[in-house]
Amino acid sequence: MHTISLNNKQFTAEANDTILQAAEKAGESIYSECRGGFCGACKCKLKSGETIGVRDAIAFLPEGYVLACSVKANSNLVLELDY
Question: Which positions fall inside the 2Fe-2S ferredoxin-type domain (predicted)?
Fold first, then answer.
């Protein structure tokens, strides 16, 4: 289990959860349109930590960003939302 800090709110992620799944389980909101076909809405700036990709993303990501639906925590993470 890893701790995720998202805009200064903390929650934990189980080994099999993507960041998006962990946030949803904790009642934290990350805007996403993954289920609606719009890739890129759930992007987060990775401030510190390491992630593991679980699927390829089709959205363009600037350097230092991850898609919350496509990665799992491989360490404790600090993330920031742009919105």
Answer: 2-83
Q: What is the pTM of this model?
A: 0.89
| CATH classification for the domain delimited by 2-81, as one of 3.10.20.30, 3.90.1580.10, 1.10.10.1800, 1.20.1630.10 | 3.10.20.30
pLDDT at 27: 94
| Cα–Cα separations (whole angstroms), residue 26 to 1, 8, 12, 38, 39 | 14, 14, 8, 23, 23
Structure-token pair, residue 24:
């949803």
Measured distance CA(48)–CA(77) in Å, rounded: 6
Q: pLDDT digit string (tens) for 13-55? A: 999 999 999 999 999 989 998 777 678 889 999 999 999 998 8
